[in-house]
Each structure stands twice: as structure tokens, then as C-alpha cells.
Specification:
Layout: H1 2-24, E1 31-42, E2 48-60, E3 66-70, E4 73-77, E5 83-87, E6 92-97, H2 103-108, E7 117-121, E8 124-133, E9 136-144, E10 149-156, E11 162-173, E12 188-190
Parallel strand pairs: 6-12
Antiparallel strand pairs: 1-2, 1-11, 2-3, 3-4, 4-5, 5-6, 7-8, 8-9, 9-10, 10-11
Length: 193
């Protein structure tokens, strides 16, 4: 029995180490990009009226961690799939979800029957998929399958009176500064969900 316990204490850490090494060695392309989100009101005649624009940046490290920032808020996803909402004005990071699959892994594994076509968006070949709003088609996602990157989304709210367009541009495959892909020093961390 003592030998079995010793074997387990050696085997389990080795398995965990292998799992973490395998995840760290996955083919995650590091990304640095600018992003914007533009909102429009849709008029009864179908024309669009500009409402507002938010700008920011998107960073993803080769470890799979990502920081998605628009104005004073960010969404940080660590290597384990834990998601934090960050308010830079209040210097607070709140854990909102744990252990989810990393977004780039989901995008790289999109089922072919979900793809409605392909289009070049901001220099990247993207698969087009529908966005469902309350079970009904409400927009489109444009995802680069090679990088596992959602390049653009456009959707209308139910009723069709409000259009949102969010996109990445000036996309570069490059490792971001590690300080850009973590919760900033000095921020309060709230872990209750």
C-alpha cells in the first residue's frame, strides 16, 4: 500500500505537469491589435445614425491569456480560462467565470456546417457565422480560423433599431509585453461570484 501511495504521489504531479506543459505548448498565436466598437440607430427607412464609438486594444500571449480593452473596461482571460472583468477607473478586477475553454480554442474548432461563407476582413480571411439573438438570426461573426481570432461582429438588438459593430484592426502576430496580459499591479481582486 505504501508503494502504491508513493507511485500515485509521483504519477499525479507528473500528469498534471504534462497537462500544463501540453497546454503551454499549444499552437496559440500571440496577437496585438487595435479595436473599436461603433453603435448606430437604425432609422425606419433603413439608414444608420451614428451613436457612439469606443476604442481600445486586444492582446493575446502565446500562453493563451488575453486582455480585451475598450475605453476604461477590460476583460482578462488567464491561461486556465478564468475570466475577470476589470474597471480601470476603480482599479478593480472581478472574477466572473472559472475554467471556461479559451476563446481561440473554440474558434479553431468551429464546425464546418456552422460556416456560411468566407470574407476578407481587415486583411484576414474570416469564416462567417450567424449570431443568434433570442434564437433568431441577429448578426454575423467573422472569425479567422488559423489564429482562432474573432475579427469582427455585427449584430442588431431585437426590434432591429440598434446596430453594434465591433472589430479588430491593425492585427499583428507578435508577443505582447507580459504586463499588458495580466491584472495590473495594485488592483483589488474580487473572487466571489
Amino acid at each position: 500500500m505504501k508503494l502504491l501511495r508513493s507511485a500515485l504521489w509521483v504519477t499525479i504531479p507528473l500528469l498534471l505537469s504534462f497537462q500544463n506543459t501540453a497546454r503551454a505548448q499549444s499552437t496559440t498565436e500571440p496577437i496585438i491589435a487595435k479595436q473599436r466598437q461603433i453603435s448606430y440607430n437604425i432609422q425606419p427607412d433603413g439608414s444608420k445614425t451614428f451613436l457612439h464609438k469606443h476604442e481600445g486594444a486586444f492582446y493575446r500571449s502565446s500562453s493563451g491569456a488575453s486582455m480585451n480593452t475598450l475605453d476604461e473596461t477590460s476583460t482578462f482571460i488567464d491561461e486556465q480560462g478564468n475570466t475577470y472583468e476589470i474597471n480601470h477607473t476603480k482599479k478593480v478586477a472581478k472574477l466572473v467565470q472559472t475554467g471556461s475553454p479559451l476563446p481561440h480554442e473554440i474558434i479553431k474548432n468551429i464546425r464546418p456546417e456552422w460556416i456560411q461563407g468566407f470574407e476578407n476582413v481587415n486583411g484576414l480571411e474570416c469564416a462567417i457565422r450567424p449570431i443568434l439573438v433570442n434564437g433568431e438570426p441577429g448578426g454575423k461573426n467573422y472569425s479567422n480560423l488559423t489564429y482562432g481570432l474573432q475579427v469582427k461582429s455585427e449584430w442588431t438588438e431585437p426590434g432591429g433599431s440598434h446596430l453594434m459593430v465591433r472589430e479588430l484592426y491593425d492585427v499583428k502576430v507578435a508577443e505582447p509585453d507580459p504586463a499588458l496580459v495580466r491584472i495590473p499591479d495594485g488592483y483589488s481582486l474580487i473572487t466571489e461570484q
